[in-house]
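Repro case for the chain-ordering regression, as requested:
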Amino acid sequence: MSMLSPIPVREIGLKHLRQACSSCSLRELCLPLGLSPEEMHAVDALVSQGKPIKRGEALYRAGEPFRSLFAVRLGFFKTSVVSEDGREQVTGFHMTGDLIGLDAVSTDFHTCDSIALEDSEVCELPFSDMEELARKIPSLQHHFYKVMSREIVRDHGVMLLLGNMKAEERIAAFLLNLSQRFALRGYSSSSFHLRMTREEIGSYLGLKLETVSRTLSKFQDQGFIKVQNRLIELIDQDALRHLVSNCPG
Amino acid sequence: MSMLSPIPVREIGLKHLRQACSSCSLRELCLPLGLSPEEMHAVDALVSQGKPIKRGEALYRAGEPFRSLFAVRLGFFKTSVVSEDGREQVTGFHMTGDLIGLDAVSTDFHTCDSIALEDSEVCELPFSDMEELARKIPSLQHHFYKVMSREIVRDHGVMLLLGNMKAEERIAAFLLNLSQRFALRGYSSSSFHLRMTREEIGSYLGLKLETVSRTLSKFQDQGFIKVQNRLIELIDQDALRHLVSNCPG
DNA sequence: CCGAGTTGTTGAGCCAGATCAAGGCAAAAC
DNA sequence: GTTTTGCCTTGATCTGGCTCAACAACTCGG
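-- result from build under test --
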C-alpha cells in the first residue's frame, strides 16, 4: 500500500470532480479569458480538482520536489520562507483563485512552505503538462507568464512596504489590500475575518505581533476600524488610504 | 526628424551586430542550454544586440509600454519602484547576463524604472516574438518560466532580509551576494567596485545612507573588509557569513 | 587648476518599534 | 465545568537605526 491510498481521496473528490474548470466560477481568476470549448476541455483533462487541505496542514514544504502549481479553490493559505537560522518570513497570503507554487519552477523544488490557514481545497495543475498544453494554446502560455510577472510586481510592492513604510502605513496598506481582494471575489470589502494570527501578519509586514496589535487598537481608537479578535470592520477606508499615501508628510 | 535618429544607433551597433547570441560568451546566462544550431539561429534572428545606454540614462521607465525584455550584455543597472507619494525603493541591481523587464509582462506596461549605473549595453528581446518562438522550442519556453520564477525566489529572499534582518546582517548579505555574482561572471569575488551610491544600497536594503556608511566603516574597523569609496575588498568572508546566519543569537 | 555640485563620513540626540513582562479571553481538551 | 492552551492586549523600558548637522573628499566642467 502506498502511504496515500487513492481510494478515499477519489471519494472525497468525487462530488467536485464534475466541477470542471469549464464550469468553475473561479475560471476568470485562474485561467485566461477566451478559451474555446475544446481548449477548455483540454485544460479540464489535466487539472485535478478538489484536493482538500485541513487547517494547519502543509500543501507543500520547502525542499519537496515540484510537480504542480496549485489553484486555491476554497480557503486561505500562507506561504513562508525560513532562513538557515530559523527566522520565518511570511511571503504571502493566498485566497480563492490565487495560483501558488510559482517559485518552485526555478529549481524544480519548492522554496517555501505553503500552509492552509483554514480548511481549504485546491486544484492541482501538473506543470510540465500545462507547459506542453501552453505550446498549443498561446493565450494559456501567455497567462502563465502574466501570473508569474504579477507575482513579481506584488513582491516589489511588498519590498516598498518593508523598505519604506512605518508600522501604521504597513498595517493600513495591509487592511486595504485584503479588503480589495475580498471585494474582487464578491465578499464584503468593509467587514471580513482575518484567517491569520497577529504574529503572521507581523511576519509578513516586518513587525512584531505586539506592534500589530497596538496599531490595530490605535486605529480602532481613532475610529478607522473596528476590531473584534479576527473580525475586522473598516469604518473609514479613506482615512486608511490617506495614511498609506501621505504619511511621510 | 524623430528624437532618436536611427542612423547613429545603427552605426554604433554595427560592430556588435555580428556578435550574435550563438557566439556570445554570455549565452549560458541568458539562454537555455542545448539549443540546436537552427534554434539558436532563430533566436539570433529576433534578438537585436548592442543597444548602448549611458550612465544615468533610463533603459525604460515605469508606465512606458512594454515590448521587450532586455539582457544586460555589459554594465550595471538598478531597477526601482516609486510609490505615489514619491518614495523610491530599489528592487534590484542587475549585471551582465541578467534579464530585466519581467515585471512588465503582467500589465504590458513597465512597472519600474531601469537606470544604468555605468555605461552599459543591452540586447533587446521582443517579448511576443520570443513567446511565439518559445512555442516551437520547449526549452526556451521553460527557460523564461524559470527566469521569472528565479526572480520571485530572489524577491522572497529580499523580503526575508527586509523583514527580519538587522542592518549589519543586511549589509553583510548584500556584500556576499555581490561577491558571489561577480565570481559567477569570472570577476574577483574578493575585490570589486560598487557601481551604486550608499543611498541606492540603503534603498535596496531598507536602510538610510548614513547607516550603510557607518556599517561599512564598522566592518572595516573589525577587519572584515576594506573600503575605499566604492572599492570594496572582502578580507574575511567567513566573518560576514557568520554575521548573516548567526546574528539572532 | 579652480569652484560647484555630488557623494561619503562622522557625531549627537531622539524616537518608533523591539523587548520584556503580566494578565485576559475564548475555544478546545479533559 | 474546570483546566489547558493558544492568541491577543496592554504597560514599561530599552535600543538600533533615523534625523539633523557639519564637514571632508571626490568629480567634472570650464
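Ordering looks correct now. Residues 166-167, 207-208, 210-211, 214, 229 of chain B lie near DNA strand D (CB under 10 Å from a C1').
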